[in-house]
Amino acid sequence: MQHQHESTKSNHSTLIHKTLGALLLCVPLFFAPTIQATTMMAPDERVQIEPEYAPSVDLVLALDISGSMSGLINSAKQRLWDVVNELGQAQPTPKLRVAIITFGYPAYGAQTGYVRINQALTSDLDAINKTLFSFQTGGGDEYVARAIHTALTDLDWSHAPNTSKVLFVAGNESAAQDPQFSLDTVAAQAQEQGLVVNAIYCGNAQAGDASSWASIAQLGGGMYAAINQQAGAVAVVSTPMDKEIALLNQKLNGTYVAYGARGKTASANQQAQDQNTLGMSESALVSRTVTKASKLYRNQSWDLVDALESGAELEDMAIEDLPKPMQALSLTEQREYLAGKSQERAELKKEITRLGAARQDYIRTQAPAADSDGLDAALKAGLQKAVEANGLKLGSSAN
User: Of the candidates 104, 109, 99, which has an alpha carbon nearest to the alpha carbon of residue 152?
Assistant: First the structure.
């Protein structure tokens, strides 16, 4: 693997080695304890370093995907980005990771309690969207307690200070069906681990099964909501800003410069998730675009612009990991090219954010009751309560 700076370095290596040797001999011995060794890190490792005081949110969605829950899944596909945008507007902006667990699908098998972790905790929001669009529904046993237990024991929850750990579990039958785990037990374990458990019952609040879901929230220190699972898929509000934001999204994608082993695949997935979201509605794509303009949408593992802005060094990268058009450029030309992409992206993000704020103002004034009983309203309310302890305020409440 050839690094870009090797040829320049070789011309002066002997002189540098001799000079450094002489200088080191001149360092007084009592300075030795202050000399620290440094380790070269790959870009993916380097950019994961976060200040200890930075707020973070680990958000887990546990969704019932038994045969009657297609409306819930469609609501999640439609409104995911609206919910993420609440966090994107928080002050200060947190580091966000999301995971998805599903339950009630017979193909998962009885040995797992019909529960599966479909996506582990990740900051890759495109991966989350891809997971949501991969679901199939089918009839099966719905073991809510098993889903909560799986989240507690099998996910890599953050241990960093100022982390809000939030679980939403949603379904439409009794939450007390699990023959192996009781709701009381798993809720107590969640409290011990600092995890807030919110319960969303997809049905009439007066139904007999609703009480078991209310118990989850009470025991888990979270919020309870009874929602219309179809609301998110039908309560779509179009605004005068949507067309322009959608056009800006295409330009924004043009500022990404894929590199490394997963660059091509990840770039293609970014485009694919735009199309998946647009398939739900233009409004959903617009909400996704607003997220892409926020600090929550970070792709340093495959995009050179994000990687360099996160601390990676261009000269440390192997030539073969760069896109072919950049390989023929000098290091100075490469930097100029990426600086141009970075500036263009910053300008696009600023305009998208401005239009996104105007869009939200329009929705608040023109359709204030839209989806008030839907999934995203329940998620926003539960999130706000869960993150308050770490000093975060969501969306418009942050202003």
Answer: 99
